TrEMBL record:
Residues 213-319 form the DNA mismatch repair protein S5 domain. It is found in: Nucleus. It comes from Molorchus minor. This is DNA mismatch repair protein S5 domain-containing protein. Belongs to the DNA mismatch repair MutL/HexB family. The lineage of its organism: Eukaryota, Metazoa, Ecdysozoa, Arthropoda, Hexapoda.
Length: 344
């Protein structure tokens, strides 16, 4: 066989592939959009979803808004108001930092932005295709803040669209993301609505985590919660959270984990938690656990994957093991945790 010729893919194909890495399903797009609303300090976030997010994902916030003159580049790749220098990555306190979300969305959906800052007398609206602003932003009526409308997600990625689950399942994933963010950001009011239906999730602003757990997951869980709080100065970490006592159990473990306020997954921690409970709960039954972990940003790498779903630890292996043992003892386990379960 002859060696095949190497060619460079055209720009459009490259951008679409890259965008598909960041946005794998409607819930990922929504997570990016929620984070974009939390960064500019919104206190109210309203979401509207049609057809599992494939037909429509809309988010409205009351944050700072986007300046009219920034519309020109807001959807370009690597344009951000949050990061200036590479070194800043170590102390980044915003969710976003590399300006990829809006660019990605504009390559695989129809994107419209409406926004008003406190200095504008009206809002401005524009649509974007493949990162580029279409025409000039037009003045429209609107309140301070931003509305991002994402329509026909994956319209130009038929294979991806086919690989997705049913709209009902995609909606379920969206609703999980919203629930978790609403619990972790309980001072922000969240509302999630499926088109045509009433609000599916509604939490008031200035609420608290337990109240939001009650609103979203129900009183059966909320009334059995134990507050959990630990701090270690040498290891520079803090843990705070709520977990159910032994009166409550469910078939599927519910584990809400935030590390430095990012919603992440951690299989080992999940297993650890479940293991501790296994001695106390009926066979094959599991708890509800919400943990918020704060670590020195210098100790973790958030820049691992475009979805930012995974967090890596920077420290050398030995340090990591020390940390892990310490966290296992402190966070999930064993002595302290057991005594909490016993005394409640
Ligand atoms: P990043 O969040 O990494 O900066 P994004 O592509 O998600 O990148 O957003 C690009 C920029 O658009 C942000 O840095 C921010 O300045 C602006 N932006 C996006 N969404 C909002 C919003 N809801 N309110 C205010 N500004 C926003
Ligand atoms: Mg962002």
């Amino acid at each position: 066989m002859e060696a095949p010729k190497i060619i460079k893919l055209n720009e459009e194909v490259i951008n679409r592939i890259a965008a598909g890495e960041v946005i794998q399903r409607p819930a990922n797009a929504l997570k990016e959009l929620i984070e974009n609303s939390l960064d500019p300090k919104a206190t109210n976030i309203q979401l509207m979803v049609k057809n599992g997010g494939l037909k429509l994902l809309q988010i409205q916030d009351n944050g700072t808004g986007i300046r009219k003159e920034d519309f020109e580049i807001v959807c370009e790749r690597f344009t951000t108001s949050k990061l200036r220098e590479f070194e800043d990555l170590h102390k980044i306190s915003t969710y976003g930092f590399r300006g990829e979300a809006l660019a990605s969305i504009s390559h695989i959906a129809h994107l419209t932005i409406t926004s008003k800052t406190k200095h504008d007398i009206c809002a401005y609206q524009a649509s974007f295709v493949d990162s580029k602003l279409q025409g000039t932003p037009k003045p429209v009526a609107g309140n301070q803040g931003t509305i991002i409308t994402v329509e026909d997600l994956f319209y130009n990625m038929t294979v991806r669209k086919k690989a997705l689950r049913s709209p009902a399942e995609e909606y379920q994933k969206i609703s999980e993301v919203v629930s978790k963010y609403a619990i972790h950001n309980s001072t922000v009011g969240f509302a999630l609505k499926k088109s045509g239906d009433n609000n599916d999730i509604r939490t008031p602003p200035e609420s608290n985590a337990v109240e939001n757990i009650r609103i979203i997951y129900g009183n059966t869980i909320a009334r059995e919660l134990i507050e959990f709080s630990l701090e270690s100065t040498p290891f520079k970490f803090k843990v705070h959270g709520y977990m159910t006592n032994v009166n409550y159990s469910t078939k599927k473990l519910q584990f809400l984990l935030f590390i430095n306020h990012r919603l992440v997954d951690c299989q080992s921690l999940k297993k650890c938690v479940d293991h501790v409970y296994s001695t106390y709960l009926p066979k094959n039954m599991h708890p509800f656990v919400y943990l918020s972990l704060e670590l020195d940003p210098g100790d973790i790498d958030i820049n691992v994957h475009p979805t930012k779903h995974e967090v890596h630890f920077f420290k050398r292996r030995t340090d990591y093991r020390k940390y892990h043992n310490c966290s296992r003892d402190k966070i999930v386990g064993f002595k302290q945790f057991k005594s909490i379960l016993h005394t409640s």
